């Protein structure tokens, strides 16, 4: 299956710990998008990355959150010093060209904060 | 700025009945419109999309949607519900052009239950 791969599927952290979420885009896709889904809410755009570049991080909280998409390896969404409000499902999507729809989504990482 | 409103957070139908899930959008530029389905603990799967051309679009699993510009709507329908259609459905919009055409804006979702 050459779809968007996210890991881990479920992640449990205690308040104050760091969470790292990984996303490998579909083969041939070099554009990655992260979305967050809070309970009973739709997905909200967080950040758009190309290889080694952050294109748009307008949806990402200014503190504690960061994202990268290195030349080699998966895209990483990093949350430092997690708080209860970070509990959500985090989805990654990818596309072959900038802005080219549709985006293809992974199965998400469910983050739970104790 | 774009927004999506899905009327009805929960819709319940009987097996074999018509499915109608409502979506209204606002967009300052011509939109691209999408319906996604999410099964429990899974990611989003594209059902159908409208970009340009024919306003009635057909998708997978017997679903279709009609883009009505005058009503700013993109309602999703299926003539006969099946038990396997039970899931959450999301309507989404993106700009068709411009600097932010990669950004999807989602509605809050409609949970569809199908009763035997």
Keywords:
heterodimer, A: 114 residues, mainly beta, 7-stranded mixed sheet, 4-stranded antiparallel sheet, globular, B: 116 residues, 6-stranded mixed sheet, 0% helix, 52% strand
At a glance:
With 114 residues, chain A is mainly β. In chain A, 0% of the residues lie in helices and 49% in strands.
Break the fold down into its secondary structure elements and pairings.
The complex is a heterodimer of chains A (114) and B (116).
Chain A: E1 5-7, E2 10-13, E3 19-24, E4 31-37, E5 43-50, E6 53-56, E7 65-68, E8 75-79, E9 88-95, E10 104-105, E11 109-113
Parallel strand pairs in A: 2-11
Antiparallel strand pairs in A: 1-3, 3-8, 4-5, 4-9, 5-6, 7-8, 9-10, 9-11
Chain B: E1 3-5, E2 10-14, E3 19-21, E4 24-26, E5 31-38, E6 44-50, E7 56-58, E8 64-68, E9 73-78, E10 87-95, E11 105-106, E12 110-115
Parallel strand pairs in B: 2-12
Antiparallel strand pairs in B: 1-4, 3-9, 5-6, 5-10, 7-8, 8-9, 10-11, 10-12
Write up this protein:
Chain A has strands at residues 5-7, 10-13, 19-24, 31-37, 43-50, 53-56, 65-68, 75-79, 88-95, 104-105, 109-113. Chain A has 114 residues and is mainly β. In chain A, the strands form two sheets. In chain A, strands 2, 4, 5, 6, 9, 10 and 11 form a seven-stranded mixed β-sheet that branches. In chain A, strand 9 and strand 10 form a beta hairpin. Chain A starts with a strand and ends with a strand. Chain B is mostly beta strands and 116 residues long. Chain B has strands spanning 3-5, 10-14, 19-21, 24-26, 31-38, 44-50, 56-58, 64-68, 73-78, 87-95, 105-106, 110-115. At the A-B interface, strand 4, strand 5, strand 9 and strand 10 of A face strand 5, strand 6, strand 10 and strand 11 of B.
